Amino acid sequence: MSESESITDRLAERLRAARKAKGLSLDAVAGISGVSRSMVSQIERGESSPTVATLWNLTQALGVDFAGLLEAKPAPGIEVTREAAAPVMTGHGKGVRIRILSPAETVGDHEVYDLSFQPGGSLVSAPHSPGCREHLTVIEGALRVESGAEEAEIGQGDTARYAADRAHAIHEASGRAARAILIVQGS
After folding, report:
1. Strand ranges inside the chain, DSSP E
2. How far is CA 140 from the centre of its chain?
3. 127 and 166 in contact (C-beta within 8 Å)?
4. Among 20, 79, 138, 158, which residue carries the largest CB count within 10 Å?
């Protein structure tokens, strides 16, 4: 296998995993990114090599790290992502900022997010893949977690673990800013 085939295959796999992790159809990604459905499909099947502009549009739509998307393996040593360089997902929730802390290659398997809620902020999610679980740890403030018909309120230092393969939501619960770390497994 040539280096270009390896890159095309890696790109196809990672973009497909990112789309599925977000629960998006090809049509939805096309609508969000401005890239045609047929082009998204061809890229995901490894039948087309996207231009830099197309790849940028797709990574922005999927909220994945453009720079790390093609890396074969993490470099040895300590990988540092500075706070200002961590990708931020936009258009999700109300009054919530979502920073992506996990590398692009873990999308769909193990994702880590830093959530910052404004007073009254919320993040409402459709069901993820069957068996998906979320682990939410409050760093400051208080949050109310809903998973299906169940709900719980958690405060600083508390962790809630819940099924995310059903409708679920996280709401700021104290009328003050809140911050949490969210780990998503098997999305």
Report:
1. 88-89, 94-100, 110-125, 133-140, 142-147, 150-155, 159-163, 168-172, 178-185
2. 22
3. yes
4. 138
Q: Using CA atoms, how far apart are residues 43 and 148, in angstroms rounded to an integer?
A: 35
Determine how β-strand 133-140 pairs with β-strand 159-163: antiparallel
CA–CA dist 49, 42 (Å, integer): 9
DSSP string for 109-144: TEEEEEEEEEEEEEEEE---STT-EEEEEEEESEEE
> Would you say residue 120 has pLDDT above 60?
yes
Strand-pairing partners, residue 143, are 154, 172
pLDDT at position 5? 53
**CA-CA distance, 56 to 51, in Å (whole number)?**
9
Q: Are 58 and 33 within 8 A, CB to CB? A: yes
Average model confidence (pLDDT) for the chain?
86
Phi, psi of 120 (to 5 degrees): 80, 0
* Per-residue confidence (pLDDT) for residue 141, from 0 to 100: 98
Q: How many Cβ atoms from other residues are within 10 Å of residue 182's Cβ?
A: 19
Partners of residue 138 on adjacent β-strands? 180
The SS3 call for residue 152 is: strand
Q: Which residues contact 162 (CB under 8 A, 6 or more apart)?
A: 133, 134, 136, 145, 147, 150, 168
